[in-house]
């Protein structure tokens, strides 16, 4: 039997977002998009937070040695797009080590390297200026906020062409079950429309609006 994570990987972020909405949970990350429309990622969060640098300049990226295969690196740089916290060296290192992908509340660079390597990278923007001496590593393995969406280590991170959702680990089975029901219902509605029913009738027949409000 598939695990909840495997089931989540087969679902679009739209269905997971609808399920999170219906359950009253935050999780849809605003303003973070994939570099490529074909990018997909699913995995437990490995959290990283940056802060503005001062006299103690620090470094950018050394945490990557500690990321386990299959994890998704989630970086909170407070949405800054004036300097980068991820580039080509990090992409190639992560790809070699089997990291599932990277989500950045901030900017990345060396976009062509990530696209050519088919490495799933999602960010708030892209900009070539280095983050060295501009930001420093503040925390690894801590709770983050991605534009108001809380993320703690091991929360499930799912990304596709529509963006990124974060599902609390403790609620994953529940969210996946509801998202699966929503996805099946939408497929049934499309089938009914193709068979000649009106969209209004098809939605009413399958309780579409009630399903999306379930649990509120």
TrEMBL record:
<feature type="binding site">
    <location>
        <position position="110"/>
    </location>
    <ligand>
        <name>Mg(2+)</name>
    </ligand>
</feature>
<dbReference type="GO" id="GO:0046872">
    <property type="term" value="F:metal ion binding"/>
</dbReference>
<dbReference type="GO" id="GO:0047443">
    <property type="term" value="F:4-hydroxy-4-methyl-2-oxoglutarate aldolase activity"/>
</dbReference>
<protein>
    <recommendedName>
        <fullName>Putative 4-hydroxy-4-methyl-2-oxoglutarate aldolase</fullName>
        <ecNumber>4.1.1.112</ecNumber>
        <ecNumber>4.1.3.17</ecNumber>
    </recommendedName>
</protein>
<dbReference type="Pfam" id="PF03737">
    <property type="entry name" value="RraA-like"/>
</dbReference>
<feature type="binding site">
    <location>
        <begin position="87"/>
        <end position="90"/>
    </location>
    <ligand>
        <name>substrate</name>
    </ligand>
</feature>
<dbReference type="InterPro" id="IPR036704">
    <property type="entry name" value="RraA/RraA-like_sf"/>
</dbReference>
<dbReference type="GO" id="GO:0008948">
    <property type="term" value="F:oxaloacetate decarboxylase activity"/>
</dbReference>
<keyword id="KW-0460">Magnesium</keyword>
<comment type="function">
    <text>Catalyzes the aldol cleavage of 4-hydroxy-4-methyl-2-oxoglutarate (HMG) into 2 molecules of pyruvate. Also contains a secondary oxaloacetate (OAA) decarboxylase activity due to the common pyruvate enolate transition state formed following C-C bond cleavage in the retro-aldol and decarboxylation reactions.</text>
</comment>
<feature type="binding site">
    <location>
        <position position="109"/>
    </location>
    <ligand>
        <name>substrate</name>
    </ligand>
</feature>
<comment type="subunit">
    <text>Homotrimer.</text>
</comment>
<comment type="similarity">
    <text>Belongs to the class II aldolase/RraA-like family.</text>
</comment>
<dbReference type="InterPro" id="IPR005493">
    <property type="entry name" value="RraA/RraA-like"/>
</dbReference>
<keyword id="KW-0479">Metal-binding</keyword>
């Amino acid at each position: 039997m598939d695990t909840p994570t495997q089931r989540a990987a087969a679902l679009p972020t739209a269905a997971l977002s609808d399920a999170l909405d219906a359950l009253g949970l935050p999780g849809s990350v605003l303003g973070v998009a994939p570099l490529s429309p074909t990018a997909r990622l699913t995995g437990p969060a490995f959290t990283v937070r940056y802060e503005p640098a001062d006299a103690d300049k620090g470094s950018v990226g050394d945490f990557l040695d500690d990321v386990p295969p299959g994890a998704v690196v989630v970086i909170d740089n407070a949405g800054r797009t004036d300097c980068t916290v991820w580039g080509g060296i990090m992409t190639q290192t992560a790809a070699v080590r089997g990291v599932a992908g990277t989500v950045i509340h901030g900017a990345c660079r060396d976009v062509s390297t990530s696209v050519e390597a088919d490495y799933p990278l999602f960010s708030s923007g892209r900009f070539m200026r280095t983050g060295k001496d501009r930001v420093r590593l503040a925390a690894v393995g801590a709770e983050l906020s991605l534009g108001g969406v809380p993320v703690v280590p091991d929360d499930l991170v799912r990304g596709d062409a529509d963006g990124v959702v974060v599902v609390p680990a403790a609620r994953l089975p529940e969210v996946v079950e509801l998202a699966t029901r929503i996805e099946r219902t939408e497929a049934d509605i499309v089938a009914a429309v193709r068979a000649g029913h009106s969209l209004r009738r098809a939605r009413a027949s399958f309780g579409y609006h009630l399903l999306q409000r379930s649990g509120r």
